[in-house]
Amino acid sequence: EAQVTQNPRYLITVTGKKLTVTCSQNMNHEYMSWYRQDPGLGLRQIYYSMNVEVTDKGDVPEGYKVSRKEKRNFPLILESPSPNQTSLYFCASRATTVNQPQHFGDGTRLSIL
Amino acid sequence: QQQVKQSPQSLIVQKGGISIINCAYENTAFDYFPWYQQFPGKGPALLIAIRPDVSEKKEGRFTISFNKSAKQFSLHIMDSQPGDSATYFCAASLSYNTDKLIFGTGTRLQVFP
C-alpha cells in the first residue's frame, strides 16, 4: 500500500530535549515536505526537499532542521524544542510530474512543555 | 502577496444541502489551486484541483468555481452528506513548483442528518 509513514504519532517532551520525527514514503517520490498545522493558521511549510541531498526552507523553518540522505526518508529534527513548536506536524511526498498531488502522512502531535 | 484567505472558518449544513467554501488569493502568478479534505486523525488528502484556464471543474458532488479576474475560487459540495464532515483546505501554488503550496486557514464542515 502506497503510504507516507510518520513516527512517533504522539510525543510529549520538555524544552531543550532534542527530538527527531521520522518520515518514510514507499512511492519512490522525489519531493518531500514538512508542514505544521496550527488552529486558525492552516498548514505552513517548514522545509521541503526536491531529491536526495537537496533541501530548501519553506515559510517557517526557524528552529527546525532536516536531512535527505535517502530518497525514502526525510526526518525532521528539533535540536532544542521550545513550547512554541507545540503543533501537529505532517510529512508529505509527491512525484515529479507537474501538478502531481502531495500525499500526506497521518501526522505527529508534538507537545513541548 | 503569498496569502490565501479562506472563509468561513466553520460551516454547518443540513444533509442534502449545498456547502460552499470560498478562497481568495493575491499572487496572480499562482496557477494551480487544489482543495484538500482532512478527517480527524488523518492527513489532508487531495479532493479536487483546478487550473485557471477553466472556470469550473466538477467531480461527482464536488465542484470548483474559479474567477480569475476576482482572484477567487470556491468549493461547492452538492447534496452534502454526513460523511462529508471534515476540514477543508484550499491552497495555491505555481504549477511548476507544487511543493510550495500556500494553504488557506481551513473550514470545518459539519453535515447533520
Helices of chain B, by number, come to 0
Structural class of chain B, please?
mainly beta
Quaternary assembly: heterodimer
Helix count from the secondary structure assignment of chain A: 0
Helix content range of the residues of chain A, please?
under 10%
Average residue pLDDT of chain A: 94
Could you please describe the fold and organization of this structure?
The complex is a heterodimer of chains A (113) and B (113). By secondary structure, chain A is mostly beta strands. Chain A has no helices and 11 strands. Chain A has strands at residues 4-7, 10-13, 19-25, 31-38, 42-51, 54-57, 65-66, 76-78, 87-94, 103-104, 108-112. With 113 residues, chain B is an all-beta fold. Helix content of chain B is 0%, strand content 52%. Chain B is built from no helices and 11 strands. Chain B has strands at residues 4-7, 10-14, 19-25, 33-38, 45-50, 56-59, 62-67, 72-77, 86-92, 102-103, 107-112. In chain B, strands 2, 4, 5, 9, 10 and 11 form a 6-stranded mixed sheet that branches. A 5-stranded antiparallel sheet of chain B has the order 1-3-8-7-6, with no helix packed on it. Classes of the chains: A mainly beta (113), B mainly beta (113).
Task: Itemize the secondary structure elements and their pairings.
The complex is a heterodimer of chains A (113) and B (113).
Chain A: E1 4-7, E2 10-13, E3 19-25, E4 31-38, E5 42-51, E6 54-57, E7 65-66, E8 76-78, E9 87-94, E10 103-104, E11 108-112
Parallel strand pairs in A: 2-11
Antiparallel strand pairs in A: 1-3, 3-8, 4-5, 4-9, 5-6, 7-8, 9-10, 9-11
Chain B: E1 4-7, E2 10-14, E3 19-25, E4 33-38, E5 45-50, E6 56-59, E7 62-67, E8 72-77, E9 86-92, E10 102-103, E11 107-112
Parallel strand pairs in B: 2-11
Antiparallel strand pairs in B: 1-3, 3-8, 4-5, 4-9, 6-7, 7-8, 9-10, 9-11
